[in-house]
From TrEMBL:
<dbReference type="InterPro" id="IPR029063">
    <property type="entry name" value="SAM-dependent_MTases_sf"/>
</dbReference>
<dbReference type="GO" id="GO:0008168">
    <property type="term" value="F:methyltransferase activity"/>
</dbReference>
<dbReference type="Pfam" id="PF13578">
    <property type="entry name" value="Methyltransf_24"/>
</dbReference>
<keyword id="KW-0808">Transferase</keyword>
<protein>
    <submittedName>
        <fullName>Class I SAM-dependent methyltransferase</fullName>
        <ecNumber>2.1.1.-</ecNumber>
    </submittedName>
</protein>
<dbReference type="GO" id="GO:0032259">
    <property type="term" value="P:methylation"/>
</dbReference>
<keyword id="KW-0489">Methyltransferase</keyword>
Length: 263
């Protein structure tokens, strides 16, 4: 990330932090409960410990891996060497988001999760540890292999890994897995593919499914993608947490509502 990009992102975050609401600004009973019982329950749980011990090991790792990056900022399939510790530091979602995903799975009673972008598997492991079967797609075979070892070390057998470009893998995964309760789009980070993956998933979603988008303010393109999701006819409610956005397609919401919540 360039210094200019960092500065622009920091400026956006300050604006978000100063203007975002809290549970008192939410008038929907469902969203109020979600904020109160899920977003604000940030205390540490024993169930989080295995993932955070794994994170510590990854951050201390001296291993290197050849990475094929198919997402934004990549060389479109060019390989390069990266330290595992560097991937854990810059690509893995911070602990508070993995723990949020754990609580979301439990709160929603989610049985099946689809994740686009496994990386080292920390977020995957959080959702699987909460009881969901997670189908996760990773574009880089070497990163997928590392994630497989991480899942094995955690004793998780409810994760189904798929390796390949989202463009070629997503359709088949959607066909073979049960209808997802949660879709987590955490990969590519470009406007057109993000919206396209969302629309490809829509026919397979349940009425109470949610779709989580990573880095919705990362670039102007991702902000346009998030705006497209918010205005999509199938989306009834959204929650903007700055680093992620959550979209609901539930028909129980009779009018579109968009919340920006401090997290």
């Amino acid at each position: 990330m360039s210094i200019r990009h960092q500065a622009a992102l920091a400026k956006k975050y300050i604006r978000y932090y100063l203007t975002a609401g809290n549970r008192h600004d939410v008038h929907s009973p469902f969203i109020f409960t979600l904020v109160e019982e899920v977003l604000n329950k940030k205390g540490f749980r024993p169930a989080y410990e295995p993932m955070e011990l794994l994170r510590t090991r990854l951050l201390q790792s001296n291993d290197v891996v050849q990475v094929t990056d198919l997402g934004a900022g990549s060389l479109m399939g060019a390989s390069n060497t990266r330290r595992v510790s560097e991937i854990a530091r810059h690509a893995a979602k911070p602990a508070k988001f993995g723990q949020l995903f754990y609580r979301l799975v439990q709160h929603l009673g989610a049985k099946n999760v689809l994740e686009l972008g496994t990386s080292l598997g920390l977020s995957t492991a959080y959702m699987a540890s909460a009881g969901a079967t997670v189908h996760t797609i990773e574009g880089c075979p070497n990163i997928a292999a590392l994630a497989r070892m991480n899942f094995s070390s955690l004793g998780l057998d409810n994760i189904r890994q798929h390796t390949g470009n989202f463009d070629t893998e997503l359709a088949g995964v959607l066909q073979q897995m049960p209808n997802p309760d949660i879709v987590y789009i955490d990969g590519n980070h470009r406007e057109e593919p993000t919206v396209r993956y969302f629309e490809e998933c829509l026919p397979f979603l349940r009425p109470d499914s949610i779709v989580i988008f990573d880095d919705v303010h990362w670039t102007e393109g991702m902000e346009r993608a998030w705006d497209a999701v918010k205005s999509h006819p199938s989306v009834t409610t959204t929650i903007d947490l700055f680093f992620i956005g959550i979209a609901f397609i539930s028909p129980d919401f009779k009018a579109k509502q968009h919340f920006t919540i401090k997290f």
